[in-house]
From TrEMBL:
Residues 146-303 form the Phytochrome chromophore attachment site domain. Residues 528-751 form the Histidine kinase domain. Keywords: Chromophore, Kinase, Phosphoprotein, Photoreceptor protein, Receptor, Sensory transduction, Transferase. Its EC number is 2.7.13.3. In the N-terminal section; belongs to the phytochrome family. It comes from Flavobacterium endoglycinae. This is histidine kinase. It comes from the Bacteria. Pfam families: GAF, HATPase_c, PAS_2, PHY. Gene3D superfamilies: 1.10.287.130, 3.30.450.270, 3.30.450.40, Histidine kinase-like ATPase, C-terminal domain, PAS domain. It catalyses: ATP + protein L-histidine = ADP + protein N-phospho-L-histidine.
Length: 756
């Protein structure tokens, strides 16, 4: 029978160190021995040191039946152990082998039963003592609230149970860089609490083994590895030791431990949601071994942590989560008008920053940017939205390092992190956080974790504190902060839809009102075309007919008078048609509003009417008028109609006087409007009117006097009303019979507002 060892002698290089086959080293630590048996209980693997523990060598054992070497009683006890409901990983089998007592751990590895025997601990701690310590720990654990407090308690409790010089709770980040999160140590030792270690200190394949085998012990870092031998009956024969207690460690890791002065270690995996959350790392500065009972108690300490991670993290975040939830509730409960301009109010609400603990926020809607707090420039916001759109198809994007995600954007200290959410229809909301410059203390320079020299690869031998200054990053967004932002983004999206629907409804309502008014005007125009226009036509027809039928009877003087009457009727008809044309051409022109100086409009109007003013011997008095948002030529037409109306209805008993006054500052007419506006008043001393007609005089073709007394179409003031509607203003009339008339016009200061 040919025998060979299975020692893995592959050379580890910089290119393959991340894939070092540490699960098949082919050797073990010397504080126990290993035997591998097949399904038919034939010894197929045996370590070189078996003779150090029992009176048999590996050459004598290999290829033999287990019972032939160790006896049928030993084999039967092992079979009974494997068939019981005991947790074999927790309770090793206590068994006598060739007259000596051992504690044997058993597991299967690809069809091979792997038996790892350690000498029975003669002075092992009693289980009652471990139980008492565990009960005491559970009592203290219930008094802690935060995860950090719990980890500190576990570190202290584990050191008491195991007796190691230093116990650390080692927590990983997303990249598996480690941080010493809690620590209990001998008083004379340098503290490691708060130090960070790079992910290369524990490579990927080692992390995988920590998940499979949650307890790892090294009794003496100066140990001489013991090779495993096997019957040489297959090519590339090997033994997977992933679940082994005695498995020999990577030589690079052993050298690492020697460099930091450690003599023995115990490592317990902390598994959370099937991932390696962290480790309980126990260091001793000389050789040290502990019994399986103590190992089990230490392992139980780790399970206390992993069972409490979610609860303790929730407790740690509870206050912040409550604050975010309250901010979200208050924000979504605000009664905000369904207007696009209400976004200015939304973005200034303090709760919009509180819900995600942001320092700034911007809402982009309809190509307008609303901002609050510390935010980048509008140009950078637009660029950021464009880059996020190119980078991701998701509606949500978060980062705490914008410059790393998008180097094209020149960042500054005001914004380094963001939560972005698309609101649809090319609308967006972004929360910002400023740069947080942080200092990380590493246990040695992370870039030099593996060193290569002429003798091969080595771990670093310097563990002096190496400080790293981290810039261009904000504090990380917590999950509850991102969730709160997402929830509000959905609420805001719905609100924007409601605003759009409200505006559409308002547009249709306005169009309906315009249509209704237009129909009414068409009826009036139809009436005037069939009534008022027929009257001058009838007169023209009557006069010309009489002149044609009685040419010899009619005198020259009578002909001249008749022609004047024809001309007058034709002139009246032309004026009526011109007024109808002006009236129908006025549309909703708010989008064309500009700043108009009413002083210039008034002077131009007076100049144009100068002949009539002189003829009437009228006096025009006026004061400084404001600038308003309107359309220049419509204001000219408005002033023209109002002043002409005052001149037309002047009293014959007194000199016509028209006074024009105005508000010098914006005012709120609370009995009429709740927005700031300017007013202009035209007061005359003419014939006046009864106040009950104050509304009807603005209706098209309405006359309070007959045509013979006062010429006109009845369109003038209706035209004024329509002009004011077109610019979002309003017009009122006040009258007293035989005393005069006041026409007051109102203009909103903000062109977005309307008074009608």
């Amino acid at each position: 029978m040919k025998i060979k060892d299975i020692v893995n002698r592959d050379i580890v290089t910089l290119t393959n160190c991340e894939h070092e086959p540490i699960h098949i080293p082919g050797k073990i630590q010397p504080h126990g021995f290993l035997i591998g048996v097949t399904a038919d209980w034939k010894i197929d693997f045996c370590t070189d040191n078996v003779a150090d523990f029992i009176a048999v060598s590996y050459t004598e054992a290999l290829g033999q039946n287990f019972a032939a070497v160790f006896g049928f009683d030993a084999e039967q006890k092992i079979l009974d152990y494997l068939n019981t409901d005991k947790i074999q990983d927790a309770f090793p089998l206590e068994i006598e082998l060739l007259g000596k007592l051992f504690q044997v751990s058993i597991h299967q590895s690809h069809g091979i039963y792997v038996l790892e025997a350690e000498p029975h601990f003669p002075d092992k701690e009693k289980l009652a003592d471990v139980y008492t310590q565990t009960i005491q720990f559970v009592t203290q654990m219930n008094q802690t609230k935060s995860l950090k407090d719990l980890c500190a308690l576990v570190a202290e409790g584990t050191r008491k149970i195991t007796g190691y010089d230093r116990v650390m709770i080692y927590r990983f980040d997303e990249q598996y860089n480690g941080e010493v999160f809690a620590e209990s140590r001998r008083d004379d030792l340098e503290p490691f609490l708060g130090l960070h270690y790079p992910h290369t200190d524990i490579p990927a394949q080692a992390r995988e083994l920590y998940i499979k085998n949650q307890l790892r012990i090294i009794v003496d870092v100066d140990y001489e590895p013991v090779p495993i031998f096997t019957v040489d009956d297959k090519e590339n024969k090997n033994l997977d030791l992933s679940l082994s207690i005695l498995r020999s460690t990577s030589p690079i890791h052993v050298e690492y431990l020697k460099n930091i002065g450690v003599g023995a270690t115990l490592t317990i995996s902390l598994i959370h949601h099937d991932k390696l959350w962290g480790l309980i790392a126990c260091h001793h500065y000389s050789k040290k071994n502990i019994s399986p009972e103590i190992r089990l108690a230490a392992k139980l300490q780790g399970q206390f942590i992993t069972s409490q991670i979610d609860i303790r993290q929730s407790n740690d975040e509870y206050v912040s989560v409550q604050k975010a939830s309250l901010a979200l509730e208050q924000l979504t409960g605000l009664e905000i008008p369904l207007l696009q301009s209400s976004l200015e109010l939304v973005v200034k609400t303090p709760q919009i920053l509180d819900l995600s603990n942001a320092s700034g926020v911007s809402i982009v809607s309809r190509d307008k940017i609303y901002k609050n707090g510390l935010t980048p420039s509008d140009e950078k916001i637009i660029k950021l939205i464009e880059l996020i759109g190119n980078e991701s198809t998701n509606s949500v994007f978060t980062t705490n390092n914008i410059s790393n995600s998008f180097p094209e954007i020149e960042t500054d200290s005001d914004f380094a992190g963001c939560i972005y959410h698309s609101l649809g229809n090319n609308d967006h909301i972004i929360w910002f956080r400023p740069e947080t410059i942080s200092e990380i203390n590493w246990g040695g320079e992370p870039e030099k974790s593996i060193v290569k020299d002429k003798n091969g690869l080595h771990p670093r031998n310097s563990f002096n504190i190496w400080k790293q200054i981290v810039k261009n990053q904000s504090t990380k967004w917590k999950r509850y902060e991102i969730n709160a932002a997402i929830q509000y983004a959905h609420a805001l999206h719905n609100q924007l839809i409601m605003i759009m629907l409200s505006e559409e409804e308002e547009k249709y309502r306005t169009q309906s009102e315009i249509l209704k008014e237009t129909n009414s005007e068409l009826e009036n125009i139809n009436w005037i075309s069939t009534h008022d226009l027929q009257e001058p036509l009838r007169k023209i027809q009557l006069i010309t007919s009489k002149m044609l039928t009685e040419p010899d009877v009619v005198s020259k003087e009578s002909i001249a008078a008749s022609l004047k009457r024809v001309s007058k009727s034709a002139s009246r008809m032309r004026g009526l048609l011109e007024d109808i044309l002006k009236y129908t051409r006025i549309k909703n022109a708010k989008e064309a509003l500009q700043l108009v100086d009413l002083n210039k409009v008034l002077k131009s109007t007076i100049k144009e009417l100068q002949e009539v003013i002189t003829q009437k011997n009228a006096v025009i008095e006026f004061e400084n008028l404001p600038e308003i948002h309107a359309i220049g030529f419509l204001m000219q037409q408005l002033f023209m109609n109002i002043i002409q109306n005052s001149l037309k209805y002047a009293s014959e008993e007194r000199t016509p006087v028209i006074k024009i006054t105005a508000s010098q500052e914006p005012v709120i007419m609370r009995h009429l409007y709740k927005v700031h506006c300017h007013w202009v008043r035209f007061s005359d001393n003419g014939i006046g009117f009864e106040q009950k007609y104050a509304e009807s005089i603005f209706k098209v073709f309405t006359r309070l006097h007959n045509q013979e007394q006062y010429a006109g179409s009845g369109i003038g003031l209706a035209l004024c009303k329509k002009i004011m509607q077109a610019v979002g203003g309003d017009i009122h009339a006040e009258g007293k019979p035989n005393q005069g008339t006041d026409i007051i016009i109102y203009f909103p200061c903000d062109p977005e507002d309307t008074l009608i």
